[in-house]
Specification:
It contains 9 helices and 8 strands. The chain is an alpha/beta fold. It has a single domain, classed as Rossmann fold (3-Layer(aba) Sandwich). An 8-stranded mixed β-sheet has the order 3-2-1-4-5-6-7-8, sandwiched between helices. Strand 1, helix 4 and strand 2 form a beta-alpha-beta unit. Helix 4 packs across helix 9. The radius of gyration is 17 Å and the shape is globular. The model has no long low-confidence stretch (mean pLDDT about 95). The protein binds zinc ion. The site of zinc ion has 9 residues, from helix 7. Zinc ion binds next to helix 7.
Length: about 250
């Protein structure tokens, strides 16, 4: 379907890029993603994807906005305190991008629940859900865009074990729940670091949809907010991995 005059205007800055162009914007308009978690990673990631014209965004989160979220979850305002994260985020996304179809799932996603998106985005804060999302992505042959932030550090990767032969999955990277996992969930985190990770997750999703550049498959991007230096490390498939191993 041809882009309307309004869409040409709205997406002009993407259309001007040779790696995206009109065809890339059309792919974005036809794309669907599931974002699990509407907090510090899922919120800004969803905002960039809606602004980029992603046609359908499914959001999962059971939480309400707490005043302690506002230090980093910039999609919310003080007036949102006590309200559903999903409801408030969906309003924000629709206001920014009226064509974007938002599915609001006001629940904590569980492995038995179907995810509608063609690309899965892990914006959760617990290992149980991360492992479950990884299993679903692998079994259903979908890309999993994954990000995490703690303290001053962040990491981003794309797991494609169900899509590309030999590509590692999340569990090749994190074989089991780390012993300090519970402490991680309550640890401090710098607001802008979560924003950088969330933006990287949106960027990787945009690349997967449009085919631009090279996604972070088999690579983990590590960000250090204290030094301002980021680097990527290679990640190989673990042949003994319980999810994707031979
Ligand atoms: Zn694996």
């Amino acid at each position: 379907m041809a882009l309307t005059a309004q869409q040409l205007d709205r997406h002009k800055r993407h259309i001007l890029l040779k790696e995206i162009g009109g065809p890339g914007v059309q792919k974005l308009l036809g794309a669907s993603v599931s974002i699990v978690g509407a907090g510090a990673l899922g919120g800004p990631c969803a905002m960039y994807l809606a602004a980029a014209g992603v046609g359908r965004i499914e959001l999962w989160d059971a939480d309400t906005v707490d005043v302690s979220n506002l230090q980093r979850q910039v999609q919310f305002t003080t007036a949102d305190t006590g309200k559903s994260k999903i409801r408030q985020l969906a309003e924000r996304l629709k206001a920014a991008s009226p064509d974007c179809e938002i599915t609001e799932q006001l629940a904590r996603w569980g492995e038995e629940e179907t995810l509608a998106g063609h690309i899965l985005i892990d914006a959760t804060d617990n290992f149980e859900t991360r492992f479950a999302l990884n299993r679903v992505a692998h079994a259903s042959g979908r890309y999993l865009v994954s990000g995490a932030a703690m303290g001053w550090a962040g990491q981003v990767s794309v797991f494609a074990s169900g899509v590309e032969k030999g590509a590692p999955c999340y569990q090749c990277f994190v074989p089991e729940t780390p012993p300090d996992a519970e402490a991680c969930e309550d640890a401090g985190v710098v607001g802008p670091v979560t924003g950088i990770v969330a933006s990287h997750m949106a960027l990787e999703t945009l690349k997967l949809v449009t085919g631009a550049g090279r996604p972070l498959i088999g690579q983990v991007l590590l960000l250090d907010g204290l030094t301002g230096i980021s680097r990527s490390v290679r990640l190989n498939q673990d042949t003994d991995c319980p999810v994707c191993g031979a």
